[in-house]
Write the structure tokens for this entry.
Amino acid sequence: MFFPRVFIEITNICDSTCIYCPNSIQERKRGSMDIELFKKVVDDLFSNHKTKKIDFHILGEPLLHRIFFEMVSYICSKKKYPVTLEVTTNGNLLIKDSIQKGLLNSELDIIGISVRASDEHEYRLKVPKNSPLNYEDYIESIKSFIRKVHEANSNQLVSLGYFHTVNSAFTLVFPYPFITEKSQILNVTKSWHDLIKGYKQTIPFEKIKIPSLIAGWSYEKNVSLSRNLEIRIEGNGLWQNKLISDDYFVKEASFGKCSLYDNLSILCNGDIVGCCLDINGENSFGNLQHSSINEIITSKKYTDFKKNIEKSRLTLPLCKRCIGTICKKDSGKEIKLGPPRFIKYYYLIKESPGLFLKTAWMRCVKYFRNGLLFHILS
Ligand code: SF4
Ligand code: SF4
């Protein structure tokens, strides 16, 4: 079977307490995947399935895994076809030279660093209160790593992750706006561009396209600064509405469009879950300690889930909640976020015609595969 993306959570232990993450309310036992299970997963994946991308993350900080680099090497020794390897890290451990060297010498293609913070205040929403790492040291260590990647003329891409909170459900619950204006994207881009100005792989600033932030825009936007550096601007959500406060409740949905179920998500204890948002492993389809990927994804439970969700039918409680509508508890009023779909499509055609065509094509394919009901409901 083909999975566009495989998430292997090698640990759910983390050294941060980001307010936008459900890590602190995670009910799973904390732990790390042992090498034997990891090898079993990788062998099984490359022998019987295909994927384009492997990411070492669901929750937790992957660089805390004591044999992280050994795991990356193992994948590279076993891969039978080209696959992009990506790690998403909070960047705290880049303060260590050994980690920077390890990343540089590894065969990772993308090193995603969830910077999120554009100043000291936002940074403090990320790290534990007693963290000895201050904002300057944190940013400086990321900068030194970026310089090294450019100097080595490596093929690795460093992707710096930022959040936008335009019309985001996140701001209903947390009074912390992250990026809300195009000018902020411009400032962030400028500050990172200044760092890499002299390198030959750098794109001249005037040629960089800064995206606008359309209210309710949900597409991820990547701003390319050089062959080795990009800024990734993502919308920020409430993790299946799990981070919602007591002032709100969720009206569950029975129908709705999901775009994550096609991936394969493996938790650090070996459970296969429906998507990378199932942070508590509420809906485990089976465990890879005792079964193969194939045995799990051909089980009735899994195939029923896939069949239903492909047709936009939400049968699992966590999916119903995830796609559900947030309502005010006192008035029962539904919270509507974002502009009507035609406005989003207008800006999508204007700003990213390629992405629009891709989205339209995927919808056509699903339309023919799943019929009119899907089209109307999604
Ligand atoms: S670093 Fe990642 S896993 Fe850890 S708390 Fe922050 S978002 Fe969550
Ligand atoms: S609808 Fe279900 S499978 Fe899709 S993202 Fe939400 S919880 Fe995951």
About this structure: Residues 14, 16-18, 21, 23, 59-61, 90 surround iron/sulfur cluster (ligand 1) (CB under 6 Å). Residues 27 and 364 are 39 Å apart (CA to CA).
